[in-house]
Amino acid sequence: MPSKKRDISKKQIEWEKKQEEAAKKREEELKKRQDEPPVPEEEASGLPKNWPEDITYLTEPTWSEAVTEEQRALLWHLASELDANCKITASQIAATPKTCAITIIADPKHPAHGQRGLFAAQDLEPDRFVCLYLGHIHRNIPSDTDPASDYDLCFDREIDLSVDASRSGNQSRCANDYRGIAERPNAEFRDCFVKVPCAKRAGGTKWERRVGIFVLSAGKAGKRKQGVKAGEEILISYGKQFWESRKTVAQVSEEFGMLKVADAAVEG
Ligand SMILES: C[S@@+](CC[C@H](N)C(=O)[O-])C[C@H]1O[C@@H](n2cnc3c(N)ncnc32)[C@H](O)[C@@H]1O
């Protein structure tokens, strides 16, 4: 009777063969696409170029019904409590399509080959706001969480909120982790604040916390003073925990491609 180990390695060989065939096919399709005339930056639909058609494009987050008013109130601040550089204006948000663009990765050596990535659409200086991380804001409790999501970002552990961009989001959902692509990340998630309407407050607005993608600071030695150049991929660190849980899922579901990537990421 064949052992389970032998079964798995047979499956893995078959899987690798299929991968090679699929890569060849993808290569041909990408080449065909590159020969086609370029699509305008924004499609007639108003969606960014290369936006996945099965995902809802958001300009502001959606909120789970499980999020309480008390939790939400913990995200509100007065303008006087905030540093100027963490206040994101409406015009900075509106500039998202000018700062970054979604690209389908054509390089077969890239670990996310064939998937999407987020790229700088112009030179971005250190600390520059790139875009908000938009999605569905939900509680971290199991009944309000999609355990299979690859786009779920912890918003605040103490307040018990996360942002999931698996079914809806904006350009930020395409930002890849730096592992296997570059030596280090060039951007990061940072807390920031946006102005939202509030009838109860003087001035009719309040500042509500969000998460954004920002170019990394120049650093004490000014090592990263060049920021991110136009055309460069915007890469963040998802953290080892993301890859450890991805590895466990890949082991159980026998997703050998992801297992290889997650293994390298955990060890790297
Ligand atoms: C938040 S999504 C990033 C965008 C994704 N590439 C897409 O096309 O939608 C996270 C997923 O992207 C892929 N990914 C991101 N960074 C990666 C990396 N460094 N190596 C391999 N795959 C990566 C993995 O499939 C991961 O589960």
Structure notes:
Helices cover 27% and strands 24% of the residues. The longest helix has 32 residues, at 4-35. The protein is of the alpha/beta class. The chain is globular. It has two domains: 50-237, SET domain (Beta-clip-like, Beta Complex), CATH 2.170.270; 240-268, no CATH class. The structure holds S-adenosylmethionine. Residues 111-112, 115-117, 150-151, 173-174, 176-177, 179-181, 261 line the site of S-adenosylmethionine. This is SET domain-containing protein. Residues 1-36 have a biased composition (Basic and acidic residues). InterPro entries: SET_dom (IPR001214), SET_dom_sf (IPR046341). Residues 100-239 form the SET domain.
Write the layout of secondary structure elements.
Blueprint: H1 4-35, E1 56-57, E2 62-63, H2 69-73, E3 76-77, E4 87-88, H3 90-94, H4 96-99, E5 100-104, E6 116-120, E7 129-132, E8 136-139, E9 152-156, E10 161-164, E11 168-169, E12 176-177, E13 187-197, E14 205-215, E15 235-236, H5 240-253, H6 256-267
Parallel strand pairs: 1-11, 2-8, 4-13, 12-15
Antiparallel strand pairs: 3-14, 5-6, 7-14, 8-10, 9-10, 13-14
Helix pairs in contact: 5-6
Bound molecules: S-adenosylmethionine.
